[in-house]
Structures are given as structure tokens and as C-alpha cells.
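testing teh design pipeline on a random one, pls ignore if ur not involved
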């Protein structure tokens, strides 16, 4: 633990923070602030065939049947990103980085949409089509086909494979078993087995099965959770303005503020805010581009805009509302967080939701975790396929399901430190490809 913390403190020091934020700012400016087209991008995600006749024309019957629609690709991305990062990740960001971490997490989301656009554009541009008609792509194929560097592509694929077992499995399974144990007293072993079985049944059906499930469940789960956050903010309405002011002040403060939070000034707020923002929206890591490449559209701009909205929903909306709920509760009922673990600040806030607080959060967390397990299984599968071909996929799926169970009993603090390390290592080759091929990306 001590070694991991030292590595992460170095990795997530100002050099990587500046590199990541610098990339977000550069592409925001280069692409002439693509965020201004957000509402058009949301419309594209729902009605893109009406917006672009070329898309409908390019979607051959085989491609359309075997690959994902743009909305299914977006739903798969959201399934992987909407998870414990929006609930537990925000809680740890506030506990370890102070309320100001919420501001930097939100800024990461706003600016990260431009980076996500660039990642997905390049992924569609440099993807490959297999003999069975399925498209495969992602940063590893961008590195191989765009930079003509197979070794960097293999490095990224290896990091993605490792992240699938870390970010995709252990953080989700661990968070679910912790929540169900505290709320319902369920055995972590029993919950771990149940998660493994449910996920295994879905991923055996392949990308179409994953996309169909995500398309149906992710919007419903998200709106239900947002409704719970809005109800709490109505309850905390008298603390809302004070909470916003506190978040902004702490974001630029060099000294820790009082209130029982383990914040340590500007650098820790940046470190945990940006790290958790990157964990939840994955802009800069490039995993969303793997799902974008599976879309049947041949227009990189359309899919890039559609996939860009995932960062908006994930961080700008979901993480912000969760953060406001947590900080408002710290003002509304300071005693509720006394002696609370860093991962339980969100639970303390939702405990004030009338009648169903604990159960509502636990069910939401479990639902998000299951969709994340399913979404990340696809990312890891494409990485395994890149490294070892189709013959590695059955072995990967088996190991992935086993890791879900094992993740249920791993200490939580160790899981999050490993997650930060893996995310940092994945960002480096992906950002290299973005900068090297920046002239290929059109707005």
C-alpha cells in the first residue's frame, strides 16, 4: 500500500495533471469548442440516421446487423463509465481531496468532452473490419495503424486488459459486496457468485447481447438515480448555495478547510478530483473509443459527437449531482459523517432520503456496477483479441468472471490505489497517439 501510494502520488503529481488538462484544453481550442454542439450531439445519439443520410447509406445489411448502432455504442460506453466512480469515487474524492475536488472533477468533464471526441474520431478512422463483418478498434489500433507502432498498441492493449480486471471487475464487485453487506447483511461470497453468474450469462452472447442490454437498462437506471439526487437537493436546498461556494473556494485553496475532511490543499484537490474524473468518464484513457469503433457508421464525426455525450452525462451531470449531495449533507448534518469511512460519505447523504435511503443507494450501486461489469468486459475482450487473437477470448471471459468473485473480497483501499495506477499508465500511450495524430482530427 505504501509503495502504491508513493507511485500514485508521483504519477498523479502536477506533470500528469498538466498533461491531461493541457490535452483537454488544446483539443477544446483546436476543435473550436465542440462542447457548443452538445445538444446537437445528444440529438444525433437518438436520431443520427435522420441527421446524416450518408450514415443510413453506409450501413450495409451485414454491418448494421452485426455491429452496434451509434446509440448502442454510446450505451455500452455509459454502461462502462456510469458505475461506482459516480457514487463511491466521488465520495473518496471529497474525503481525500476536499470539496474542491468536485470542481476539478467537473472541469475534467467539461473539457474532457473534446478529448473524447478526438479519441473516438481516430478510433473510427483507423479501425479494422474482420471477416465476420464486425468492426474492431480503439487506441491500440490507432497506435498500430495510425502511428505504425505495434509495440505501443500492444502496451495499450495490455494496460486495457489489466484495467478490465481492475477497474472493470474489482472496484465494481468490491463496492457492491460492501454495500450489500452494510445494508442487507449479505455474504460477500454469495454476492460475488451472483454477480459472476449474471455477468457471465450476458457476455457469452457477444457484443450484440451487451449492446442490447445496455441500451435498455442504462437510461432507466441513470434517470432513477438522478431523481434520487434531485430529491435530496430539494431537502438540502438551504445548504445548496453555501455548498457551491465552499466547493469553489476549496478548489483554489492552498490550505485545508475545516469540516472533518482530509483535504490537503490545491494539489490534493487537483490530484483526486482529476483522477476520479478520469476514472469515471475515461476521457484521456481512450476506452470509450473501443465501443465507438464497433458502431456501423462510417462517419467519424458523427460517432465522435455521439460518444462525446457520454462524458457529459457521466461527469458533468452525474458526478456533479453526487458531489453536491455529499457536500450539502456535510453542512446539513455534520454528525452523520463523524467517523465515516472515506467511501461512505455518499451513503451518509442518502440515509436522509425518506423511507428508502439506504436501500435506494444500494440498489442503484448494484445496478450501475452490473452494467459496468458488462461494459468493461467488452473492452477487455477487444484487448485480449488484439494481443492473442480470437482463441484467447473464451479464456479471457472465464478469467473475467472468476475475477468478479475474487474482487468481492479484496480490501477496498488497495483496489482504488491500483485503479489510479492503471488509469495513469493507460493515459500515456493514448495521449501520445492523440497528440501525434492531432492533424487528422476534424471538427
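output:
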Amino acid at each position: 500500500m505504501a509503495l502504491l501510494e508513493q507511485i500514485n502520488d508521483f504519477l498523479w503529481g502536477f506533470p500528469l495533471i498538466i498533461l491531461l488538462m493541457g490535452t483537454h484544453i488544446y483539443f477544446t481550442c483546436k476543435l473550436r469548442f465542440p462542447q457548443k454542439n452538445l445538444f446537437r450531439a445528444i440529438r444525433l445519439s437518438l436520431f443520427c440516421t435522420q441527421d446524416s443520410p450518408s450514415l443510413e447509406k453506409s450501413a450495409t445489411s451485414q454491418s448494421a446487423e452485426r455491429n452496434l448502432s451509434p446509440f448502442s455504442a454510446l450505451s455500452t460506453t455509459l454502461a462502462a463509465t456510469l458505475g461506482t466512480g459516480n457514487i463511491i469515487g466521488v465520495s473518496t474524492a471529497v474525503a481525500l481531496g476536499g470539496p474542491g475536488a468536485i470542481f476539478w472533477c467537473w472541469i475534467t468533464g467539461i473539457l474532457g468532452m473534446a478529448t473524447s471526441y478526438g479519441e473516438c474520431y481516430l478510433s473510427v478512422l483507423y479501425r479494422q473490419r474482420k471477416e465476420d463483418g464486425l468492426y474492431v478498434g480503439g487506441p491500440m489500433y490507432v497506435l498500430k495503424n495510425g502511428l505504425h507502432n505495434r509495440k505501443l498498441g500492444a502496451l495499450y492493449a495490455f494496460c486495457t486488459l489489466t484495467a478490465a480486471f481492475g477497474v472493470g471487475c474489482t472496484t465494481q464487485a468490491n463496492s457492491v459486496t460492501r454495500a450489500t453487506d452494510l445494508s442487507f447483511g449479505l455474504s460477500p461470497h454469495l454476492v460475488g457468485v451472483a454477480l459472476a453468474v449474471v455477468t457471465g450469462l450476458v457476455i457469452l452472447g457477444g457484443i450484440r447481447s451487451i449492446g442490447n442490454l445496455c441500451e435498455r437498462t442504462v437510461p432507466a437506471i441513470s434517470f432513477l438515480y438522478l431523481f434520487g439526487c434531485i430529491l435530496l437537493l430539494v431537502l438540502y436546498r438551504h445548504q445548496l448555495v453555501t455548498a457551491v461556494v465552499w466547493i469553489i473556494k476549496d478548489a483554489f485553496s492552498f490550505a485545508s478547510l475545516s469540516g472533518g475532511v482530509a483535504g490537503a490543499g490545491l494539489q490534493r484537490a487537483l490530484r483526486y478530483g482529476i483522477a476520479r474524473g478520469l476514472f469515471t468518464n475515461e476521457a484521456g484513457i481512450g476506452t470509450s473509443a473501443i465501443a465507438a469503433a464497433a458502431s456501423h457508421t462510417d462517419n467519424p464525426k458523427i460517432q465522435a459527437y455521439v460518444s462525446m455525450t457520454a462524458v457529459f452525462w457521466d461527469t458533468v451531470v452525474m458526478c456533479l449531482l453526487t458531489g453536491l449531495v455529499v457536500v450539502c449533507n456535510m453542512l446539513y448534518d455534520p454528525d452523520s459523517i463523524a467517523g465515516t469511512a472515506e467511501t461512505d460519505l455518499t451513503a451518509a447523504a442518502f440515509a436522509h432520503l425518506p423511507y428508502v435511503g439506504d436501500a435506494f443507494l444500494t440498489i442503484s450501486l448494484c445496478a450501475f456496477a452490473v452494467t459496468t461489469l458488462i461494459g468493461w468486459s467488452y473492452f477487455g475482450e477487444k484487448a485480449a483479441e488484439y494481443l492473442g487473437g480470437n482463441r484467447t477470448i473464451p479464456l479471457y471471459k472465464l478469467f473475467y468472471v472468476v475475477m468478479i468473485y475474487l474482487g468481492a473480497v479484496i480490501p477496498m483501499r488497495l483496489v482504488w490505489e491500483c485503479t489510479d495506477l492503471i488509469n495513469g499508465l493507460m493515459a500515456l500511450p493514448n495521449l501520445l497517439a492523440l497528440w501525434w495524430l492531432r492533424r487528422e482530427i476534424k471538427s
